[in-house]
Design the sequence.
């Protein structure tokens, strides 16, 4: 027993020593958690020198070419490309961590449009000076998505909008002259098409309905297409409205009435592409990047040359697309703000956007480029995409976007799977969003 | 931290003082006759180890507990800028775990974690034992089987999550094989089943190989003796193999349980984040920290840590799992003794 008591003593002493040392360490690190003094950020863009451009990878190499061109012209203000992981969540985490420790490593940030409000409200990026960016030549929705409370905080880099893919061959076979513009037109078109022998076993329409960011996109589009909004201009939630109900009902009824494939609740972009490409659905809502794989003539696509594109349908007329894309913003912690601003101006200029189109199919923010015959020859979907973008709405512009999109997914998913009635789901969604925006 | 506490638990002096083995390899114990000077010297020599332990184990732990007592108080001022500050909220982050919306999520995640741990470890143990029994026999291609059985274990979890996601797609192999249309990756019981299948596939080989190692040190004579006694295969399994392989098996099961309690990547990749049916405590903590709510994220992490520690301690105390090998010698001796007795019986 004597031995045992000693062991316990030693154990206690060891633990106490370890704990004491650790508490000391914790105390040292504790100073970072003090409330930050809300210092007025110097909005003067001063300081020249080398900077770092922080972004996700650009597989096409187009961004790297723009940077090379800048570096050749500005040898004393070199821009270094810091690559972040492909996952958007991880990019956001790294960007936020760097901002929270006020690191000057990241100078120019490549931000997803949905992070705009969060970064602006936390002062993790600087508002850009007025007239620095030629916003009048850009598609209005892209500028709106880069604006927070009347301040432009990022320069639109590239954008993205929804396209409505349809089977031209089946429409022709059913004697339908023009693709549907509304959900009702789509339903009656489907009735005719699905009666055709060549359309046996097909479903009418699909979007993306798995519990994911894509569901927020599809829900926001349905609500906006029915004339509603998810949040108003002040950031206040507005989903407990007749318009929002009509929007969500489009999707809920789609499942109930068998308009959508029964497994569409598991669909993300990729599964939807496969369903359309294998001839399982007549209509598909998806992003423009699908266009090239659907048109592939190497035998991988059954629908090559048989499909067309238009704007997504709404309730009374063409629907409203949500907006994707990226903006470039300046970190307040970089010493070389003048260089950072100049680089952003250069990088997001129309000239550079045109040059990048040679390599990359990312949709530029400048409306003129969509009408340029040389560009359209290479990217035939651009005119339709422009229509979609000119009508597009940003996703909810809120500071707590992460919690907001999660609440939307949670409740919309419950309604789609039938776990909740549409009314109850929207009511709960409204309550959750109000709680989030009150924080 | 858990392994450290286990270490302290079982590296004490032998439980039976009468045995009186000189515990020369016991770093903590064996202090019966030391002088104060020796003690200081020992403390001095151990201090680098203690410092490292403090740095990599105690500091993160205390820091997490410290963080879990705070909450970010953010609001928007008139210009729409975040007014920031962290306020000390005491145990409010913990109280929230049992009430309201966050309480519901926590209880759900806690239930899922426990459910996955119990089901997967049980199935893995049974399957692992069967695999080990199969591999322990001499037959052609045995080494090939052993190597191939390791493949699932060697595949990174995130990659196997993607593979299984592919299999469980609505038009994937799983549905084609059973001729149905089950939505494995949607919310519901099917998604739980999908996680269990993938997890068992991945980790049964781990238990299998550890148990196989345990089986191979059982001397062949024991079985020969049993055979002469007329013991059948089942009798041999129940009276020789299982009792002798028990120490190894317990350690394997303990490791698997601690692993399963921290399960994150498989449900995250296979089913997706934010799906209630498969959300575990680790996923919940990740999600909270992703939303910059570090206080409640730390509270989740601390609770998970306490849970894991409690399971480990109960396991070691009640079932007497021998993590550090302190009792292995004794076990060997007992095995030899059993061997001798059986031999003696056989010759009678």
Sequence:
């Amino acid at each position: 027993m004597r031995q045992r008591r000693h062991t316990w003593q030693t154990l206690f002493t060891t633990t106490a020593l370890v704990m004491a040392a650790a508490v000391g360490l914790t105390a040292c690190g504790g100073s970072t958690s003090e409330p930050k003094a809300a210092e007025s950020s110097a909005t003067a863009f001063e300081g020249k020198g080398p900077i770092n451009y922080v972004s996700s990878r650009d597989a096409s190499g187009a961004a790297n070419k723009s940077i090379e061109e800048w570096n050749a012209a500005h040898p004393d203000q070199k821009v270094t490309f810091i690559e972040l992981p492909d996952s958007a969540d991880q990019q956001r985490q790294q960007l936020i961590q760097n901002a929270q420790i006020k690191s000057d490593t990241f100078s120019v940030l490549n931000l997803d449009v949905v992070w705009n409000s969060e970064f602006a409200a936390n002062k993790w990026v600087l508002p850009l000076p007025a007239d620095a960016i030629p916003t009048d030549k850009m598609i209005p929705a892209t500028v709106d998505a880069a604006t927070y409370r009347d301040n432009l905080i990022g320069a639109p880099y590239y954008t993205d909008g929804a396209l409505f893919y349809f089977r031209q061959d089946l429409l022709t076979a059913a004697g339908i002259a023009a693709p549907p513009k509304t959900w009702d037109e789509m339903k009656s078109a489907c009735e005719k098409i699905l009666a055709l022998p060549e359309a046996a076993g097909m479903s009418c329409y699909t979007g993306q309905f798995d519990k994911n960011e894509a569901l927020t996109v599809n829900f926001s589009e349905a609500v906006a297409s029915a004339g509603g909004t998810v949040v108003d201009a002040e950031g206040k939630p507005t989903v407990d409205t007749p318009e929002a109900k009509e929007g969500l009902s489009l999707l809920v009824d789609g499942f109930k009435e068998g308009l959508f494939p029964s497994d569409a609740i598991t669909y993300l972009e990729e599964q939807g592409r496969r369903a359309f490409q294998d001839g399982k659905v007549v209509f598909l809502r998806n992003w423009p990047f699908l266009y090239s794989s659907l048109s592939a003539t190497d035998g991988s696509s059954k629908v090559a040359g048989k499909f067309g594109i238009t704007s997504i349908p709404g309730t009374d007329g063409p629907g409203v697309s949500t907006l994707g894309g990226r903006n470039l913003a300046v970190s307040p912690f970089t010493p070389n703000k003048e260089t950072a601003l100049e680089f952003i101006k250069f990088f997001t200029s129309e000239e550079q956007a045109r040059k990048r189109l040679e390599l990359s199919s990312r949709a530029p923010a400048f409306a003129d480029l969509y009408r340029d015959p040389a560009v359209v020859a290479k990217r035939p979907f651009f005119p339709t995409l422009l229509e979609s973008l000119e009508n597009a709405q940003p996703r909810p512009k809120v500071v707590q976007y992460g919690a907001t999109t999660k609440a939307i997914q949670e409740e919309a998913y419950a309604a789609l799977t039938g776990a909740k009635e549409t009314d109850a789901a929207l009511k709960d969604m409204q309550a959750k969003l109000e709680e989030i925006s009150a924080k | 931290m858990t392994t450290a506490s286990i270490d302290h638990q079982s590296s004490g002096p032998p439980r039976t003082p009468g045995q009186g083995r000189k515990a020369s390899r016991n770093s903590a114990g064996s202090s019966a006759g030391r002088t104060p000077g020796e003690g200081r010297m020992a403390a001095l020599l151990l201090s680098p180890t203690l410092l490292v332990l403090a740095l990599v184990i105690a500091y993160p732990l205390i820091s997490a507990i410290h963080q879990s007592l705070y909450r970010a108080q953010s609001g928007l001022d008139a210009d729409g800028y975040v007014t920031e500050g962290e306020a000390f909220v005491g145990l409010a982050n913990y109280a929230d775990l049992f009430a309201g919306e966050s309480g519901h999520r926590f209880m759900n995640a806690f239930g899922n974690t426990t459910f996955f741990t119990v089901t997967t470890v049980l199935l893995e143990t049974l399957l692992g034992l069967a695999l080990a029994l199969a591999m322990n026999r001499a037959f052609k291609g045995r080494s090939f089987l052993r190597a191939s059985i390791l493949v699932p274990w060697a595949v990174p979890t995130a990659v196997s999550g993607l593979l299984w996601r592919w299999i469980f797609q609505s038009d994937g192999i799983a549905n084609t094989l059973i001729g149905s249309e089950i939505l494995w990756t949607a919310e519901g019981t099917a998604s739980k089943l999908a996680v269990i299948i993938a997890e068992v596939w991945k980790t049964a080989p781990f238990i299998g190989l550890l148990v196989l190692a345990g089986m191979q040190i059982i001397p062949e004579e024991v079985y020969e003796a049993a055979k002469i006694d007329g013991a059948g295969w089942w009798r041999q399994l129940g009276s020789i193999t299982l009792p002798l392989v028990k120490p190894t098996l317990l350690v394997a099961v303990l490791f698997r349980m601690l692993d399963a309690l921290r399960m994150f990547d498989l449900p995250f990749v296979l089913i997706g984040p934010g799906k209630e049916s498969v959300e575990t405590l680790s996923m919940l903590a990740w999600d909270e920290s992703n939303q910059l709510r570090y206080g409640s994220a730390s509270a989740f992490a601390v609770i998970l840590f306490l849970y894991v520690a409690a399971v480990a301690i109960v396991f070691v105390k009640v079932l007497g799992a021998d993590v550090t090998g302190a009792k292995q010698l004794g076990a060997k001796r007992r095995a030899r003794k059993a061997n001798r007795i059986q031999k003696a019986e056989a010759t009678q």
